[in-house]
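Readers of this paper often ask what the protein records in our data store actually look like. Such a record has a labelled line for the sequence and another for the backbone structure tokens. Nothing more is needed to write down the fold, since each code stands for a local backbone conformation. The remainder of this section carries one protein's record, kept here as part of the documentation.
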Amino acid sequence: MMQKLATSMILICLAFVNVLDANAQDTYTVKQIKQDFEHLYERLAAAQYDLYHYTSKEDYDRAFTETKSTFTRPMTKLELQKTFQQFVALAQIAHTRIDFPISDYRSFMQNGGKTLPIYPTITGTQVLVDEFYGGEQALTSGVEIIKINGTPIREWLQPIYSYLSADNDEILWGFVGQQLPALLWLHEGEKEGYELTIKDLEGKQTKLIVATQTSAQQEHYSLKNSDDSESVTLPREFKMLNNNIAYLKPGPFYNFDGEDIWDTTSFHQFIDDAFKHFTTNKSQNLIIDLRNNPGGTNSFSDHMLAWFADEPFKFASDFKVKISPESTAANAKRLKTSKNKSDVSHQLAEFYSKQENGTVFSFPLPTSAPHPDKHFDGDVYVLINRFSYSNAVSVAAISKDYGFATVIGEKTADLATTHGAMERFTLPNTGIEVGYPKALIIRPNGDTRPDGVTPDIWLDFAKESADALEQVVELISSTKSLASIKN
């Protein structure tokens, strides 16, 4: 239990890592609001690689005019974040976003706030209970949600979708499934309960009132329903599963232990320690677990890949960057704290200085090489699922496209060729930060289609999550050739 609850907070915190807490009760005048809204749209269109990739300029212009006309009274920062967030989300691109107001949500929960304690699995045909942290015994995993408050579930979810930027339905459904309690708070505040119409595993429909729960109550139900034998889930870990199979969970590809989230020092040391442990124990097989990984940056993951790569590699076959004052300023801000004079930020700064704003150029990505004096020579298996995001998808794509590893699991919802390399700019009056992708990243094999990473070997982790790792170990240990069951 608590897998989605923990993943939800990782995703929300990752989205909010660079944003300082602010007083959401600060009120802004109509003039200040309209000024910031104009700044938002103008700068987003100028800085993003292609704001109108999915949503036409005509439709965006219309939404801008309609939204601006609604600003007729002073509003709080939280109110504005909600409205601005919905406007930005019209782009339908995951890296185009205004982040969830985590400080306000944290304050709400710490002060006894209650939310609907359900994390669903949403598919093209059904909305199923995945995890539930309340007292209603009927809400077990796999139960289908038919209606909420008398409204068909698909219709009921539509307003929630409007807060999220996503390139496809699978990404959108994954975000909502992992963050529904928080998104409901954002959309409508605190409620005492919800009426659910459900269909149980035998097909019987039932109505029940589900009370909202505080964080303490949700933790109580989680502990009550958990198996004492369940192991504690760590954000990063490495270990030997048996005499010849090693396990590595690298965790997010950013630094969550210090002030500088892009400081690679501790992560690189962790990776080196893990592989030294594996080689000392003469491991013949290694499982790298990227399930539920929110991503990060390749300055972290390339160091890991270099341990088992057998040729030089790049995280993309092409990296097309749009030049803008916003991206130049964001890059310059990073340079102030950069300790590595050879990192990409310094190279970007040089190219930015030679290009005109508004132009697009293919940035010559540096090649990463295998470690010259250390290498893991066993077979590597990379685990992915629909909740592997961003740079975790890139690691899977590199592993598959270069043939460094066998990829196992579910196809990723997030894309291997994607609008990415997110930067941020700040609105002058409210201080709201706006994220946008400055580049088009094309996966290592050159495939330009917007598609996820397809595993070499399919395993339905959603249905078999309890023993997914055991399934993989059994596959690796089997005398049956893995090559014979690859796609």
Remarks:
- The first strand starts at residue 27 and ends at 28.
- The two ends are 32 Å apart (CA to CA).
